[in-house]
Specification:
- This protein has about 325 residues and is an alpha/beta fold.
- Helix content is about 40%, strand content about 20%.
- It is built from 14 helices and 14 strands.
- The strands form four sheets. It has a seven-stranded parallel beta sheet, with helices on both faces.
- A hairpin with a 2-residue loop joins β3 (about 50) and β4 (about 55).
- α2 crosses α13 and α8 (about 190-195) packs parallel to α10 (about 220-230).
- It is globular and about 60 Å long.
- About 45% of the residues are buried.
- Bound molecules: ligand FO1.
- The site of ligand FO1 has 18 residues, from α3 and α7.
């Protein structure tokens, strides 16, 4: 895709909205191609849970570790060069060990829990961690209020991590709910940024739409601000050829009556997005999407893939802004 010189230099401001591993890959690409301080990442906290007496925020930590260069490159979650002494000691005690917590990772959970108990906000704590890790981007939890993703399955109600880690996404899901979303307050700076057209692009990263992006969109004020923002809003499809590269996105979409395809993704985000980035494999589907689309390589194996997709997203958003598509979206919803 052709790029304007200011975009090539990284002179845009971008809001990335994401969950864990898949979304964090694109967030890293954006972080690397933008000038320092130009990226804000709004992160899902629906996966947060209390475990072994600690407050765990898996998606926040994945984004912190990824942007801080601390993430384990194979798993995508947890820390590189991790040791597991505490986990081994827990197993020897027959304590709960289904959720793997490395020693360095544990330090983050212990300190976050201590500060929460002392009355600090999650956003304040995450901002402090980001500074400690030398990250020149804003990493913002979707809310300081608790929201918990719950899955109604053929094994009964499961919390997110029971479904995702303990049951490996195997139970059939009938419905997903987000306890606390109605009362949760959105970060004011994000609402102000969306309302004031502070972002040259808002990017819904290729995270699971039903599990990782929907908890964020369920906060009414955030959804409203996204739908109304004058900034271009795009999504990157997490499905390629009807399959998720990793995780249960396609399985869940089918179980919950959505088409597991780029058309299903476009329908899911309709009224919120001005454009959808799809993989070149899906380019023949572009005409049926009823939204502007950019076919490109969306599979991110290398660092270069992440940066190239990030540049494509920024350039596509600039093109949509020039065509004034954001106002068409507002008129249509
Ligand atoms: N995912 C797993 O599949 N198994 C684990 O034992 C596990 C532990 C874990 C610990 C800390 C952390 O930040 C993430 C962890 N994850 C683990 C990933 C996490 O469950 C998911 O990636 C997200 O919640 C979904 O985005």
């Amino acid at each position: 895709m052709t790029q304007r010189p200011d975009i090539a230099r990284g002179g845009s401001s971008v809001l990335a909205i994401c969950g864990g591993v898949g979304g964090a890959k694109l967030a890293l690409g954006l972080y690397r191609v933008l000038e320092p301080g130009r990226l804000t990442v709004l992160v899902n906290t629906g996966d947060d849970f209390e475990h072994l007496g600690l407050h765990i925020s898996p998606d926040i930590d994945t984004v912190l570790y990824t942007l801080g260069g601390l993430a384990d490159p194979e798993r995508g979650w947890g820390r590189r060069d991790e040791t597991w002494a505490c986990m081994e000691a827990l197993k020897a005690l027959d304590a709960e060990s289904w959720f793997l917590l490395g020693d360095k990772d544990l330090a983050v959970h212990i300190e976050r829990t201590r500060r929460l108990k002392a009355g600090e906000t999650l956003s304040g704590i995450v901002g402090g961690f980001a500074r400690h890790f030398g990250i020149a981007a804003e990493i913002v939890p979707m809310s300081d209020d608790p929201v918990r993703t719950l899955l109604d399955s053929d094994e009964g109600e499961l919390t997110f991590q029971q479904y995702f880690v303990a049951r490996q996404c195997q139970p059939k899901v009938h419905a997903i709910s987000f306890a606390g979303a109605e009362a949760a307050r959105a970060p004011q700076a994000i609402l102000d940024g969306l309302g004031g057209a502070a972002y040259d692009a808002v990017v819904l990263c290729p995270s699971n739409p039903l599990l990782s992006i929907d908890p964020i969109l369920r906060i009414e004020t955030l959804r409203g601000a996204l739908a109304a923002t004058p900034s271009p809003v795009i999504a990157v499809s997490p499905l390629v050829g009807g399959q998720a590269l990793k995780g249960p996105a396609a399985k869940l979409m089918k179980e919950l009556g959505h088409a597991a395809s780029v058309e299903g993704i476009a329908d899911h985000y309709r009224g919120l997005i001005d454009g959808l980035v799809i993989d070149t494999l899906d380019r023949d589907h572009a005409s049926g999407l009823r939204v502007a689309s950019l076919p490109t390589q969306t599979v991110m194996r290398s660092l270069e893939d992440r940066e190239r997709l990030a540049r494509d997203c920024i350039a596509f958003s600039a093109e949509l802004a020039e065509r004034r598509l954001p106002s068409a979206r507002r008129a249509g919803c």
